[in-house]
Amino acid sequence: MDSGFWLGLLLALPIGILTNILTPRVQQWFAGRSARARTARDREREADEAFASDLRTSEARYLSYVYRNIVRLLTYVLVITMIANLPFYLYDTLDGIQNLIAGGHVAEMIPIIITLVTLISLTTAFLNTSRRTNRVTKLVSGEVAGRRSGRDISSMNQAATPERSPLPQQPDGAD
Question: What distances in angstroms separate CA 119 from CA 6, 7, 97, 106, one per listed residue?
């Protein structure tokens, strides 16, 4: 028997004991973390409902909110696209990147790693903005839980735009 076997056997017992001691603490940590996340989600949902009820009062504010978020999302898409293409500009082709990885040139891979981390954070920000915009828009339009309180956007649209004929009206006897 070699020394690796004895080392594994020697370390197995302390690792097993440590695992059994730490398991309840890790479970408590996860339970506390999920409870904090749940309360944070509830607070965010309440804030979105308050914001949506505020947006219901003015069609101009609602449209401003939607247009502003459309521009924000398009900006995210533009920046994500530019950053995603950055390694290809730095290393000419995909072969150059593959050669870096295969050759083990860790120092030269740092810009690629930074680019990937930036892409992940921007994509997360994009998704969060998109989800919140969608949630607030649904709250404003009254689709969530079937609630419609006071004047909503659909009634404002009907009141703000009078019925119009697609063709101009001609005076009587103009034929």
Answer: 45, 42, 17, 19
